[in-house]
Amino acid sequence: MLLRLPFVVFAVGAVAAPSPQSLNSSLTLLIDNDLQGVSSPVSNSGVLLLEARSLKHARETCEAVGEQLWSLEKGTKSIQANLDYLKYSNLDLGLSKFWIASKNQSARAVDIDGHVVQENPDTKLPVLCSQSAPFSNVTFQDTGEKWQVIVKSNNESLTGYRDRLSFRFLGVRYAPQPKRFTYSESYVGNGSEVSALEYGSQCVQAGNIGSEDCLFLNVWTTHIPGPKTAKKLKPVMFWIHGGAFINGAASDPTFDGGNLASRGDVVVVTVGYRLTTLGFLALNDGVTNGNFGLADQINALEWVRKNIKDFGGDPDKITIFGQSAGAGSVHALIASPKSIGKFAGAIPVSNLASNDPSKGYTRYYTIEEEVEALGNTILEETGCANATSQVGCLRSISPHVLAGGLSTYARFPVVDGTYLTSDRLPLEGPTLPVRIMTGTTRDDGAAFIGFPTTTTNATAYFESQGYAVPPPELFPIPDLANKSLALFDMAARLVTDSIFRCGGQAEISGGLRNGRFHPVYFYEFNRTYQLAGWPGLDVCSPPKTAGRPHGDPGAEYRKCHSGELYYVFGNLVRQGLPLRDEADLPFQQFVLDVFSSFARTFDPNPAARFLQARGFRSTFGEIGRAGRWEPATAEGGMTRRILQWPSAQEPFGEREQCEYVGLPWN
Q1: Topology (CATH level 3) of domain 150-415
Q2: Helix ranges restricted to H, 325-451
Q3: Considering the domain 47-130 in this protein, what is its CATH number?
Q4: Are 258 and 160 within 8 A, CB to CB?
Q5: For position 111, what pLDDT does the model report?
Q6: pTM surpassing 0.90?
């Protein structure tokens, strides 16, 4: 992990990196991205688009960004998808023709349909430059001067870089280091040049990881506006990482935003925020009211609203999305009077939706309840319980002790009266100004229970997991040869219903019936690709066969928590992971396409013209086969999309089981 010290001034060489101001042009990176990376047959289809100028000026400007005019000899077919996209998007750049490399002293241009024509070299035409920046991956990122670019934003000059897919600005500060157990403040630069080439520090978490100076964000974009082109801004996807509010980082390569920005036609932002006791401790002192990490997220959202236009993003079209505790954050931001109205869309991915605040993020502790459940133990173990100032005492303790050296941690949003004013998202009142897409994996709860060591005492097993044995008529043990696995499957179904599926369905249903929500797009992943390092359960991956050495996703396996993340960000190949069968790639393309479509239009069904212009034939075919994804509505019924290959539309599930766990959706 590359870390960047705060407030480091980047030493620019003799020739400064280009910027929209020095080029007097916007910079747009276009590439036909099929998510196969360097092995793709269209991996060399990238070009840089610059604004209109004469041929001589066009040549000089391409050289200023370390490139040449795009060469016809590479074949117009290789960039036709980019030209088709430009025709579809109707950018206001006079897009009938583009300067390309000359041949035999003849000035040549290519028109929007790929035809090459001769032109007067003094004619001002938009420019196509080559795009030779390399692909990056989890072990390689070339941040050399040739690929660097400067964006002036928030009163500082940020030096980022481009790879094959996007412009990347990493470790961008949105807040100075706050005093511990106080709320962060907005950061404004001092006019200096600052490196945005490496990720900022992770926030303190267990394992002696991270720093308290960690409030950074990262931006991936394919369009940097020029001095005269602030139009045609792209939707923004604002990612909040998960990790139970005790670990995780915005720099996790799983969440690299390059593929999502490139293929999804959006600007991607990932944010770091304070975690564990440092981010969520509340005390009964009337001042230390918790929610510091949640306030950090809102602070980052404010930075994006103020500055994202400098990176080509539309501040009025932000979709917040996150998974697990990140989904809990999204849910809290919808519920918070401090943030609602500052974003237009929300995608909580696998939110823990339990009535028990110790098991989820849809019902919140009061400060008194959290102190009783967690705070008193923290105070006792640190020796701060009887201190004149408990918070002062805690400020003297090592942050790594607070984050990883105690038996418990503060890790829940609380009702503090400012950031959260009720113990759950109110489902009555005026319609909220946000469009919602949400869902789970089929077996989300499987990762939260242990595997049984015996099948002779089901009662003892369930008690060890914190549950009572459910009625067998509602939760029958599957008829499997492996009796331990059968008992595990029954328990996983109960836990998934109890803390994921039923609570989410109940909230959506109630909000729709009361007119609180716009129509909601609900889904369930029935195809997953489990994270390499978590939860470490073999049953979360498909069985391996001689013909499928990496696993057969067409066979039965458990679709566990976090198994959708590689698909959402389109990063299977970037992570160096194998495609297990012929459906992994098109399914990954489809998932990224529907998530980004929601950010663009608040409808996960991508427009047919968009798919055709981009050449996304697989997703176009899938929608034709499976039909449109229909939202759940109060009038039309509770319906969800089963995300598999091919996908399907079904009613909400587990009606009787949800009634048993106390979360009925009907």
Answers
A1: Rossmann fold (3.40.50)
A2: 325-335, 367-370, 376-382, 390-395, 399-404
A3: 3.10.100.10
A4: no
A5: 92
A6: yes
